[in-house]
Amino acid sequence: MKNALISVTDKTGVAEFAGFLIEQGYRIYSTGGTARLLRESGLEITEIAALTGFPEIMDGRVKTLHPKVFGGILANRDVAAHVAQAEQHGIPLFDMVVVNLYAFAETVSRQDVTLAEAIEQIDIGGVTLIRAAAKNYKHVTVVTHPGQYAAIREEIEKNGAVSPDTRYRLAMQAFVTTAVYDAQISQFLKSRAQEASALPDRIVLPLEKVVDLRYGENPHQTAALYRRLGESPTGVISARQLHGKALSYNNYMDADAAFQIVRGFDRPAAVIIKHANPCGVAVADRLSDAYARALATDRQSAFGGIVGVNRELDADTAKQIADIFTEVVIAPAFSRTALDILQQKKNLRLLECPAILDAILPEMEERHLSGGLLLQDKDLQPDDDTKFDIVSRRKPTEQEWKDLLFGWRVVRWVKSNAIVYAKNEQTVGIGAGQMSRVDASILAVEKARRAGLELQGSVVASDAFFPFPDGVEAAAEAGATAVIQPGGSIRDQEVIEAADRAGLAMVFTHVRHFRH
To answer: Which pLDDT tens digit goes with each residue over 331-389?
Structure first.
């Protein structure tokens, strides 16, 4: 007779699978709630306590940690001494171990979870059973997920046993399961530690595949979407798709950029993203006006773009979006009428993301390199404008101050080198990703002129300091009347003097927002 040990948290399909194993000549050993379920399903099982002669203790914390269990899993059947010792001590040899783990990730993803609750969801016996069975895969089949039941059942029905290749593959999956599980625990405990912001000496990122994508940035690249385990889903990952075909790799990247930008505004805001850069951003009292003004920044680049808004999408805004080819719209909600309008576009993806304004985002971000990665604090902290310094002789007017703060919020999301011209809380020119700051300014001015937008009376935001006076002189020549920048150049005084000669107001933020 073959022996199987079954002890699962996720009991989906386990009674049916256990019944099949019994039909195939397996004797089932089980514990706790799994044993009760199998017995209530009319199946004959043996309690682990009957095997070990020792009851479950300490509220189930200790159930399977016993030589009669692990000896039966770890015994090498090719070593006569192992088999003899098992017979001597009355240890049954286990041919299959079916175990999945306590729901730690689900528990700690709750906003109100306590440390004590999380600790109780740290599985000890289950992880040990899985690792033991996976180590001895030559003789033991390790099953760690209900999704594996069907394939194992089919193979046993066809061949009478689980093949060595399948046992090897299942062992690999088992070690991934325990590695990810331990990483979830490590990440959670780190998040609750007082030094949570410190960069650790070693990191493990627990991720779970959400979906395979058609391809990556280009058709010859494979890609998939993964989510972090042990955290509340947020951002684009948490969005519900209401309409349209599946999102591509580039769609996810651009939708995330839209999400990041609009969440930074309290007033109704709209952004249009193209290739991870904003090609237009605006705020207004009405969402439809905000979208119209964002679109006006660069109608040409908006074709095929991604739209993000921070209010429920209404019919008026939906009508405007429907007039131009758009790939994705992400919003906290959609009115019924707006949905009816936009769902006429067969391929337009509509993403509902209620948590746009109050999402709790990961504190760290990773950038992968060949052979490693870079880890840093995410640039999410709102800038404290009370610490900004007016360094020019002329102070900004009230309207200039509003536009300077608006431009500063936008420029932090534009690829460096970045220059943003803004007027009346609308972008009127954006220069992104240039090798020189002067080139970024020239590009922003040229795009404004092409769009027919008035630069006279606009303000300029720069993500990093102006290294020379020429950038400020070019801004004044274009019609700008105020500049906001981090400061910190060895030529700051020359730059300030250039602003004073041109009659510009200049504000230093003392914070840089490079975005590579």
So the answer is: 999 999 999 999 999 999 999 998 777 666 666 788 888 888 888 888 877 888 889 99
What is the spatial order of strands in the sheet that 505-508 belongs to? 389-390, 505-508, 482-485, 459-462, 419-422, 427-431
Please tell me the distance from the alpha carbon of residue 303 to that of residue 318, in angstroms, as a whole number. Answer: 15
Distance CA 353, CA 332 (A): 5
What string of DSSP letters covers 206-236?
Answer: -EEEEEEES-SSSTTS-EEEEEETTS---HH
Those residues with Cβ within 8 angstroms of residue 187's Cβ, 6 or more apart along the chain or in another chain: 204, 205, 206, 230, 231
Residue type, 337: T
Spell out the residues 6+ positions from residue 164 whose beta carbon is closer than 8 angstroms to its own: 138
Given the candidates 3.40.50.1380, 3.65.10.20, 3.30.930.10, 3.40.50.720, the CATH classification of the domain at 2-192 is 3.40.50.1380
57 bridge partner residues = 62
- Pull the structure tokens for residue 272: 């249009």
Q: Where does CATH 3.40.50.1380 sit in the chain?
A: 2-192
Tens-place pLDDT, residues 77-107: 888 999 898 889 888 999 999 999 888 888 8
What per-residue confidence (pLDDT) applies to 197?
Answer: 57
Rg (Cα) of the chain, in Å, rounded? 30
CATH architecture assigned to 235-352: 3-Layer(aba) Sandwich (3.40)
Question: Using 50, 70 and 90 to split pLDDT, how confident is the model at 207?
Answer: confident
Active site residues: 135, 275
